[in-house]
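Researcher: Here's a chain I'd like modeled. Treat it as a single chain, no partners, no ligands.
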Amino acid sequence: MKGLALLIWCTACAHVSFASAVDAEIRRSDATSTSQGSRNECKEALQECTPCVEQEKMWEVEACEETGLHQKFLCKDGRKKFFSCTRVKSLEERNFWIFEGMALAVGVISYIVVIFRQKKLDMEALQRIRRQVSSTI
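Model: Modeled as a single isolated chain. Structure tokens:
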């Protein structure tokens, strides 16, 4: 039972450090994205980085060509402009939780296998001891 509690605690610690690392990477990648010169004029983000829809890809919207993702900004002159971005926070979070779930499932399955294997080894050792005791009497 201690092992399971330790596994849960380690998973929670990994989530906190990984989530902060992902957030930092998203901020860093957004800051160094393409069209840096015109993006400097458009500082206020109106929406998060989102995947482009099929129509935008068909119309060859410039922001969608590079990564298939775009983010809407408000420029100093009042225009609203889309820029290419590299990561969608919701998709990153979903992928992280899928990874965490898979890691937890592998851990639980491994724990169960170890418990059954230990019981089998204990039974074999007990039978061996019984045979030794019965042969000496």
